[in-house]
Amino acid sequence: MLFRVLICAFVAWIPGFDAALAEPMTIDFSWQSAGGCITLFPNPEIRFKNVPPDAKLLLLTLSQGTREMGGQEIAMPANGVLPSGSIRTFGPCRSDVYQWTAVAKSSKGEVLAEARRARVYPTDELASEKIIRSESR
Fold it and tell me: Residues of the signal sequence (predicted)?
């Protein structure tokens, strides 16, 4: 009897354990095809991984340090790829670190996941790599 109770408890525990081990949502992009220094800047292609299955909305914003450069809430792309030009923000102009932030939401607006990726414009270098190199000089 105790064995059955333990088995039932273990089976009930597995889904919660699986969710806890789920990989966090990530985003990635490249500045290579982006033409900056324009007011209504079209986003580069942005790829999402490990998007929560219930995510229906995506709030995407671009920032430079503490300066928010705009963003938009759109439908979550079903294939995990937001095509270039899907939203418009103020464009990157000078060489600096710019960050895209993605917030995945349910159809009711509940926040399900958040991811960030910062790259140096226009080199595509990851921001953490630039910071590490400048600190080692």
Answer: 1-22
Domain 23-135: which topology?
Answer: Phosphatidylethanolamine-binding Protein (3.90.280)
Q: How far, in Å, CA of 37 to CA of 49, rounded?
A: 29
Question: Considering the entire predicted model, what is its pTM?
Answer: 0.78
In the chain, domain spans: 23-135
- Exposure string of 73-83, with b = 16+ CB inside 10 Å and e = fewer, is eeebeeeeebe
- Verify cis geometry, omega within 30 degrees of 0, for the bond prior to 122: yes
Q: Are 32 and 56 in contact (CB under 8 A)?
A: no
Whole-number pLDDT of residue 33: 83
Residues of the chain with pLDDT under 50: 5-6, 16-17, 20, 131-137
Please name which of 8, 1, 48 lies closest in space to residue 28, comparing C-alpha atoms: 48
Q: What is the largest CA-CA distance in the chain?
A: 71
